[in-house]
Amino acid sequence: MGRGYTLLFVLVTFLVLVAAVTAQGNSVSNRGGGRRPRVGFYGNRCRNVESIVRSVVKSHVQSNPANAPGLLRMHFHDCFVRGCDASILLAGNTSERTAGPNRSLRGFEVIEEAKTRLELACPRTVSCADILTLATRDAVVLSGGQSWKVPLGRLDGRISQASDVNLPGPSDPVSKQKQDFAAKTLNTLDLVTLVGGHTIGTAGCGLVRGRFFNFNGTGQPDPSIDPSFVPLIQARCPQTGGTRVELDAGSVDRFDTSFLRNVRSSRVVLQSDLVLWKDTETRVIIERLLGLRRPSLRFGTEFGKSMVKMSLIEVKTGSDGEIRRVCSAIN
Ligand code: HEM
């Protein structure tokens, strides 16, 4: 009889311990309402998720290098409006895509193709928000940038409204840029580092022309711009005609520190980029990222760190999200 009680006691203790360990495991993985993004999230549920996205991005960037900056900017525009939830990908007459700053976005078909291939490999498993995040990392690496590990497990949002789009603009002073980034939990180092993403890609002449021909109605170029740079841009974006111009003159397809050097030399086309050299705090960060001031920072490493932070802005992990079947429409 006594032995029977001992056995029962051991069995009950064992079951209680198992229950406690399981409960703790669940509370860790479920924190935040459903799932919390982490590296390796899909595991066995979709073994090839990273290689499938990479191969789609590779073929699109090889056939058109403009897709790399296109994806990077799209990810930024997604995360800053309703969080990184692929709301930027939803089609519709009044969706985010239709808002002014989003009309020049490129690379939608890259994400849609990756989604189609992932639905065949692992149906209803990988979110469009995760695909966009992975594709952005791959685009940077294909452009020569340093790689980083991408936490996965975001869900896709169900709401996308042009009226929610309130992104930083090319005439914003540094104070406004800092404020907009701080509102998204990003500090000034993140701001400068992420704007360093302008090392690839182009801007429409319409956004640039005014400062190179008639700055603030003076009939003259912005005096802050290096005078030897002015005629080069005037030739690319004449008073009439011209299409797009490089954000990083001389190194538009290479993900490197050349853009930050151009900011230092006042040889950049966007006013919001040029003023980063005028503010003491942002200037010091540029000097550190260029290795001109101690403690120096490595741009490649910092970019990955700041991208992970940006990619976790207001992510959806619970009943507010879903795994879309196609990226352009809610289920
Ligand atoms: C203060 C913040 C920012 C401002 C004011 C800004 C503004 C702009 C503007 C005006 C353009 C040109 C768009 C066009 O004419 O089509 C542009 C392009 C671009 N931006 Fe930003 N941006 C900011 C931050 C960022 C961030 C955080 C990233 C990514 C991490 C980013 C990545 C890009 C890329 C890659 C392009 C080139 C797009 C292409 O070639 O298709 N930008 N940005």
UniProtKB/TrEMBL annotation:
Q: Which cofactor does it need?
A: heme b; Ca(2+)
Q: Which reaction does it catalyse?
A: 2 a phenolic donor + H2O2 = 2 a phenolic radical donor + 2 H2O
Keyword presence, Iron: yes
Q: Which Gene3D superfamilies match?
A: 1.10.520.10, Peroxidase, domain 2
| Location within or outside the cell | Secreted; Vacuole
Plant heme peroxidase family profile domain: which residues?
36-331
Its principal location? secreted
Q: One of this protein's Pfam families, by short name?
A: peroxidase
> So which residues are the signal peptide here?
1-23
What binding details are noted for the cofactor?
Binds 1 heme b (iron(II)-protoporphyrin IX) group per subunit.
Say yes or no: keyword Hydrolase present. Answer: no
Q: What keywords appear on the UniProt entry?
A: Calcium, Disulfide bond, Heme, Hydrogen peroxide, Iron, Metal-binding, Oxidoreductase, Peroxidase, Secreted, Signal
Name the Enzyme Commission number(s) assigned to this protein: 1.11.1.7
> Which superkingdom is the protein from?
Eukaryota
Query: PANTHER family per the record?
Result: PEROXIDASE 25-RELATED (PTHR31235)
- What does the function comment of this entry state? Removal of H(2)O(2), oxidation of toxic reductants, biosynthesis and degradation of lignin, suberization, auxin catabolism, response to environmental stresses such as wounding, pathogen attack and oxidative stress. These functions might be dependent on each isozyme/isoform in each plant tissue.
Instruction: Describe the family membership recorded for this protein in Swiss-Prot or TrEMBL.
Output: Belongs to the peroxidase family. Ascorbate peroxidase subfamily. Belongs to the peroxidase family. Classical plant (class III) peroxidase subfamily.
The name this protein carries in UniProt is Peroxidase
Organism for this UniProt entry:
Camelina sativa (False flax)
